[in-house]
Amino acid sequence: MHALIIDDSRAMRSILRRIVTDLGYDTTEAEHGQAALDHMEGGLVPDLCLIDWNMPVMDGYQFVQRVRDDPRWRDVTLMMVTTESEHGQIVRALAAGAHEYVIKPFTPDAIVDKLELLGLLVAEVPA
Amino acid sequence: MILEGPTYTDLHAVVDEVWSAFLGPEDPLLPALPDTGLGDGVTWSAATSVTGAWNGVVTVEIPDVVAQTATERMLGLAPGEDLSTEDVADAVGELVNMIGGNVKSLMPGPSALSLPLVARGTIASPSDLTEVSCLDLTWAGSPLRVSVLARRDVPARATDKQESA
């Protein structure tokens, strides 16, 4: 399983990478939506994208729209991981095609719970 | 004019949640002793703006030792490992981003959150901002300050009123 982690903060990418690698994922990182799309145009088809909302160049909402508009990526699971917690923003992201929504700050358990709901847990959760 | 902002309790809850989630629960945030301030050493400042139904700025000011420790913990590095200035700025920016995003959710919406602005030193506040909430805390023996500033409504100019009449 492969996770594409999209966040303009290296620190946040590192936190998310440690969580999902503990769960058995390989990871690729991108610092904004366009960089993530470039990886995918280059052939990467991740099982899971963890997507921040507020990023330079291309934000997470635009990224979700672009991925959902392309049939090559219809099986990619999209999970927003963001500080955007207004109800309207959550509804917009889900309507655009995001599968799940996690609000920062989060605990590793919150990510694990969402992946379990999505059927994307690939390894035993470390104690 | 009364400017709206989060209560002390709500702001403290937001900061506490961010700190414990990403920097670990072992060092609790504690109220600062009166007049301790941030000291004379190097500080880091970060700010993020909220614009929309509520307009304001959230700032975080921390001494270098807190910024370095926060960066180490967020990047999963051992204490004392070499950190670049960019790494520290990134980590401090992410802290204010999370605090700002959660403050935004406490205020009337809809509104938008800016990308964080980070400086080694102090960020000057625009003159149309008024502090509405401030937390002076200590973490692992070092001080930190989180402030929320609300933007005063700018009255329409007379010419604007005439044009719109």
Automatic annotation (TrEMBL), chain A:
- What InterPro entries does the entry give? Bact_response_regulator (IPR050595), CheY-like_superfamily (IPR011006), Sig_transdc_resp-reg_receiver (IPR001789)
Carrying 4-aspartylphosphate, the residues are 52
Residues forming the Response regulatory domain are 2-119
Query: Could you tell me which Pfam families the record lists for this protein?
Result: Response_reg
**Tree of life domain:** Bacteria
Tell me which UniProt keywords the record has, alphabetically: Phosphoprotein
Biological-process GO terms, alphabetical: phosphorelay signal transduction system
Q: What is this protein called?
A: Two-component system, chemotaxis family, response regulator CheY
Q: Which organism is it from?
A: Nocardioides psychrotolerans
UniProtKB/TrEMBL annotation, chain B:
The alphabetical list of record keywords is: Chemotaxis
* Family matches, as InterPro entries: CheC-like_sf, CheX-like_dom
Please tell me the species this chain comes from: Nocardioides psychrotolerans
This protein's source sits in the domain of life called: Bacteria
- Biological process, per Gene Ontology: chemotaxis
Tell me any Pfam family this protein matches.
CheX
Task: State the protein's name.
Answer: Chemotaxis protein CheX
Query: What lineage is this protein's organism placed in?
Result: Bacteria, Bacillati, Actinomycetota, Actinomycetes, Propionibacteriales
Domain Chemotaxis phosphatase CheX-like positions: 46-122
